[in-house]
């Protein structure tokens, strides 16, 4: 079957526009086939449906920044969205962080920018990019974990990206691991991984333990070698993350766990203890290697460009 024109792989001389919508910032880039950035920009994310106007305006500006000869080479765009995304119906179903519900995206960006525009879930695209083109390339069985304000990720098994019937990927942050004595989670459950191992949870735990405010989880990781309280908070977070992942490892036997998102900036201070914690919990299946993602905090934006170029998460 011949691929539809709007999802065929683009030729190497085509340019693409990628837009990554975050809870605080909307980022965009125009890139060529080698990944060279020709136009870049970012705007604050407005609350609610106004965010879609901001996405459109950012795309307008990036396209206008190009010389006319380059503007004619832009062949496709991709917008990756947080929350729940129904790609089949082109609907942004829900985002608690940004505050929209059941927004029909349809052809609004295609008509506005004059190029076919795909939409997808931001974590699905980021995890796919790390698996296919980043730290997980060459492996068929990969678990990507995006660690930041929340925790989520993707799972690839047998060379295929695992997704629900409505397109969701892994809600790893909402696996309950501290039912007894755990903290309430925004999802309505108690003791989810996210209440212990997310960046915000690590910072809050340190403040509860010491009474001292911090600038965030990165500061806690930096204090680990000299501050026993910081080391204890990180150890608890790693244990919670390992408890949440161990069932996934038993079920799917990934060869690799790739860590992305803001917390991956901790580097070996996170990858090494997580590998040890998983190894301590596993008896029947081998412990996967734990590595850092290659795209880092840019995984969503880099993934949007790759998705636009490839036309599908294959």
TrEMBL record:
Gene3D superfamilies: 3.30.420.40. Coiled coil: none annotated. It comes from the Bacteria. Pfam families: ROK. InterPro entries: ATPase_NBD (IPR043129), ROK (IPR000600). Belongs to the ROK (NagC/XylR) family. This is Glucokinase.
């Amino acid at each position: 079957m011949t691929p539809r024109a709007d999802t065929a792989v683009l030729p190497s001389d085509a340019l693409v526009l990628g837009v990554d919508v975050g809870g605080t910032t909307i980022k965009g880039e125009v890139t060529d086939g080698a990944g060279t950035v020709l136009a870049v920009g970012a705007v604050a994310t407005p609350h609610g449906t106004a965010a879609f106007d901001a996405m459109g305006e950012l795309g307008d500006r990036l396209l206008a920044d190009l010389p006319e000869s380059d503007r004619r080479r832009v062949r496709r765009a991709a917008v990756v969205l947080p929350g729940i995304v129904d790609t089949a119906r082109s609907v942004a179903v829900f985002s608690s962080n940004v505050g929209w519900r059941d927004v029909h995206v349809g052809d609004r960006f295609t008509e506005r920018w004059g190029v076919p525009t795909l939409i997808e879930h931001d974590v699905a695209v980021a995890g796919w990019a790390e698996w296919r083109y980043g730290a997980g390339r060459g492996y068929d069985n990969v678990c990507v974990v995006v660690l930041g304000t929340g925790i989520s990720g993707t799972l690839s098994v047998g060379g295929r990206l695992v997704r629900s019937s409505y397109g969701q990927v892994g809600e790893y942050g909402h696996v309950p691991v501290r039912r007894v004595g755990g903290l309430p989670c925004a999802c309505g459950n108690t003791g989810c991984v996210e209440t212990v191992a997310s960046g915000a949870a690590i910072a809050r735990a340190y403040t509860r333990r010491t009474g001292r405010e911090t600038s965030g989880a990165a500061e806690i990781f930096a204090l680990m070698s000299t501050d026993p309280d910081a080391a204890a908070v990180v150890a608890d977070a790693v244990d919670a993350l390992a408890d949440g992942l161990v069932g996934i490892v038993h079920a799917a036997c990934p060869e690799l766990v790739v860590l992305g998102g803001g917390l991956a900036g901790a580097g070996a201070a996170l990858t090494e203890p997580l590998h040890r914690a998983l190894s301590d919990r596993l008896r029947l299946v081998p412990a996967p290697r734990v590595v850092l993602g290659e795209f880092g905090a840019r995984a969503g934006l880099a993934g949007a460009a790759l998705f636009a170029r490839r036309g599908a998460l294959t």
